[in-house]
Design goal:
The complex is a heterodimer. Chain A contains nine helices and 15 strands. Chain A is of the alpha/beta class. Chain A has two domains: 235 residues, Rossmann fold, CATH 3.40.50.300; 63 residues, 2-Layer Sandwich (Alpha-Beta Plaits). Chain A has a six-stranded mixed sheet with strand order 7-8-9-5-10-11, with helices on both faces. The radius of gyration of chain B is 31 Å and the shape is elongated. In chain B, the strands form two sheets. Chain B has a four-stranded mixed sheet, sandwiched between helices. Helix content of chain B is 64%, strand content 7%. In chain B, a hairpin with a 5-residue loop joins strand 5 and strand 6. The chains are: A alpha/beta, B alpha/beta. Chains A and B meet through strand 7 and helix 2 of A and helix 1 and helix 9 of B.
């Protein structure tokens, strides 16, 4: 292990060497009664990467995160976290933010953060806690009880509690949900800073835009099975350049209908823009010609499918 | 298990508990409740009783002097016994009236008078009426009938002053009248008629090594000290453990549990909670035992409780808190709201409160079979063994050791089972588990 740069003004984090995997899952399965929550999941999260974990509700994301944390145990398969395969050996080096946030309402914010840091074996000083609070614009709330905080403030306190012990690995279940854009941006910046300093981040999200812009790697599971795993470019290339984005100016007497256009498998109305998915083997030049025969083409773009498109394509009606 | 994490959880639990309003209220309330009787007595004495109570007497004995006997006792009471040292009236004054004379063989007439007097008792005009049976002056026979009875009829059975007066004055006078009626020289006979008093007495060793009889107050202390200790242990173990179920449910409902489980194992979390509860119990024990020891030493009663008993008290308080706490924590984990846990805990609560139900029989016979069995049964052993230890002559040296071993073994088993329930139940939401499911969690883990 080696020490890498500072976060804020204080301590450093010991991280695994680059090239190793912070998380390795091999053929992991978990059932609850008759329900198969996760099935045969294999995953490798490279050290220092940001791994986005997407999937519809009930697809097995939270179960997987809990298994990585050893809060629940896999029925089958192997899980290694930060090089440790034994139960909970690495937990002090992991920051975990569950989907359902929970804080002791009667505790003072500063006491609560100290308590959480101590549970990770890190005795955070008042100054250190104060710096984090100041950074998330909560400096004046340190001596107030948690019950006095708004929901957004509580989420920020929970986020500080997750990272205050300088974890090598962050597991975040929907870290941006419920945050306004300004606070989401503050947290995004902190995450990027942590990653630059060697922290590995695995987070689940429903926000495809966040996943697309923030993540080096993306994993999607659906009905407990892995359906996507790779960099965004790899995933987009796998799903081909089969999306057209067009803006048309229809003649006054024409009916604005593209569904019967030859070579088109799916039409999505995005408002000003219509998004067309090509049928297998269809040629976009022919489609352009057919469009020009019907209306004036103001915009024509051959695009890669967005993560949202791919998500909807896979999850279909189950998508959230 | 990481003991540093357990300690952090325990410190938080302890800190949250001792800062709660309910803790502070209990701290004040317990001594008030414990000394409630004494305070009420003192307050009652301060307020005093300035009432005048009227009592009617149906004298069926045929000897009018019996009424005079009561009258003299009443006069003595009114003159000497109703005032405190400052001359203020603190007890009720009595007035006597003779009911119409009646032939006890005329049952209709007797019932009419009884009804009349009873109505006056109900209306509050009379405190009571006394009925002296027609046969009270006759020598005893093998088949005594109702006529040889003195009846005291009232609707205030808890007010004992007048019946006590009656018991003191009337029976000796009746005996004297019988003897005089039989022609006995009563003046010569009376000194021979006294009955020796039977006193309960204990021996105490004085500072000079000599043995002396225990005072009456000391004998009362022999009973009150064990009762105080068992009530204290019940209250402090309940205060240390019963909030645990609600706390666990709160952690489930507010989703705090999963956050904590990201840092600690379920067993560490549970052990931290139990240790926090032990801290609360020991704090209360130290405060109350310390206060009681100070009171005892300042009033000369410190010899009525031994250091050995105090040692066992603290030991069983710790073990009892672990034992009951494990049951509360497991119940909280198995349920999803406070209402559910109340139903779930009912059988366990009955077992925990068992020592309170058998307090009377155990005090009466602390070496009997019931007391002995209960002092080895793990759920009641902490309280009953301390009770038996503090009632003279105490117990054999091996008995608390065996009780401690059995209770420790049961505690370890309970904590282990609670841990299995806790680790499954703590993350469960929605409907709580039933006993079958909980049993399955214990078996399968």
């Amino acid at each position: 292990m080696r020490d890498v740069g500072k976060i804020g003004e204080r301590s450093t984090i010991a991280v695994l060497p680059q090239g190793t995997n912070a998380i390795e899952l091999e053929d992991v399965s978990k059932s609850f009664g008759d329900h198969r929550a996760v099935e045969g999941l294999s995953l490798r999260v490279p050290t220092g990467s940001i791994y986005g974990f997407i999937g519809p509700n009930g697809s097995g994301k939270t179960t997987t995160l809990r298994m990585i944390m050893r809060i629940i145990h896999a029925d089958h398969g192997r899980i290694a976290v930060l090089g440790e395969q034994t139960c909970r050996a690495a937990n002090d080096r992991i920051g975990y933010l569950p989907e359902e946030r929970g804080l002791y309402r009667q505790m003072k914010v500063i006491d609560l953060l100290r308590f959480h840091s101590q549970l990770k074996g890190h005795a955070a000083s008042r100054d250190e806690i104060g710096q984090w609070l100041a950074r998330l614009e909560l400096a004046e709330w340190g001596d107030r009880k948690v019950e006095a905080l708004s929901k957004g403030m509580s989420q920020k306190v929970q986020f500080i509690a997750t990272i205050i012990a300088r974890p090598q690995l962050l597991l975040l279940d929907e870290p941006f949900s419920g945050l306004d854009p300004i606070n989401a941006e503050v947290i995004r910046r902190i995450l990027m800073e942590l990653v630059r300093n060697g922290t590995t981040v695995l987070f689940s999200t429903h926000d495809m835009e966040v996943a697309q812009t923030l993540c080096d790697w993306i994993l999607m599971i659906h009905k407990g099975r892995k359906v996507l795993d790779g960099t965004l470019r790899q995933i987009q290339e796998e799903h081909g350049r089969d999306v057209l984005r067009v803006r048309l100016n229809w003649p006054a007497d024409a009916k604005a209908n593209l569904a019967d256009l030859p070579g088109i498998a799916q039409v999505s109305d995005m408002g000003n823009i219509q998004q067309l998915r090509l049928a297998p083997g269809a040629d976009h030049q022919r489609v352009l010609a057919a469009l020009m025969a019907r209306a004036a083409v103001e915009h024509f773009e051959v695009a890669q499918p967005s993560l949202r498109d791919i998500f909807l394509q896979i999850a279909g009606g189950d998508a959230a | 298990m990481n003991f540093s994490k357990v300690r952090n959880i325990a410190v938080r639990e302890y800190s949250a508990a001792v800062r709660s309003k309910s803790f502070l209220i209990s701290l004040v309330l317990f001594p008030i409740l414990m000394s409630g009787g004494l305070i009420a007595q003192r307050v009652g004495q301060k307020i005093g009783d300035t009432n005048t109570y009227r009592v009617a007497v149906i004298n069926g004995s045929g000897d009018p002097s019996l009424f005079d006997v009561i009258q003299r006792a009443v006069a003595n009471h009114n003159q000497h016994e109703i005032y405190d040292s400052s001359g203020r009236q603190v007890r009720g004054r009595f007035e006597l009236e003779a009911a119409p004379s009646v032939n006890f063989n005329d049952t209709d007439e007797l019932d009419r008078i009884r009804l009349q007097l009873s109505n006056r008792v109900h209306s509050g005009a009379l405190l009571a009426f006394v009925e002296i049976g027609p046969a009270v002056m006759k020598p005893a026979t093998a088949n005594r009938d109702d006529g040889a009875v003195i009846r005291y009829c009232t609707n205030r059975p808890t007010y004992q002053d007048f019946i006590a007066l009656l018991r003191t004055a009337l029976p000796p006078a009746i005996v004297r009248h019988r003897l005089q009626g039989a022609g006995t020289d009563f003046v010569r006979l009376e000194p021979l008629l006294w009955s020796p008093r039977v006193d309960q007495a204990g021996l105490v060793e004085q500072k000079n090594g000599k043995i002396a009889f225990q005072s009456g107050a000391g004998q009362v202390a022999n009973v009150l000290v064990p009762i105080f200790l068992i009530l204290l242990m019940f209250v402090i173990t309940m205060m240390g453990t019963s909030p645990m179920a609600a706390n666990v449910i709160e952690e489930k409902q507010l989703r705090i549990a999963e956050v904590l489980l990201g840092s600690v194992t379920p067993m560490e979390l549970m052990m931290g909670k139990l240790l926090g509860g032990v801290g609360v119990s020991l704090t209360l024990a130290a405060i109350f035992i310390g206060g009681a020891a100070y009171l005892a030493s300042s009033t000369g009663f410190s010899s009525y409780i031994s250091m050995q008993s105090i040692g066992w008290f603290f030991f069983f308080t710790i073990v009892g808190t672990f034992l009951y706490g494990a049951l509360f924590v497991a119940s909280g984990a198995a349920c999803s709201n406070v209402k559910e846990v109340q139903g779930f805990m009912m059988p366990v609560m009955l077992l925990i409160a068992l020592p309170m139900f058998v307090l009377g029989p155990v005090l009466q016979n602390p070496s009997g079979s019931l007391a002995t069995v209960m002092s080895f049964f793990p759920l009641s052993a902490p309280m009953i063994m301390v009770l038996r230890l503090t009632i003279p002559p105490g117990v054999a040296a091996w008995e608390p050791l065996v009780a401690a071993a059995l209770t420790l073994a049961a505690t370890v088993a309970c904590v282990w089972m609670a841990g299995r329930i806790f680790r499954v139940g703590i993350l469960m939401q929605g409907k709580g588990a039933n006993y079958t499911a909980v049993f399955r969690w214990i078996v399968r883990g």
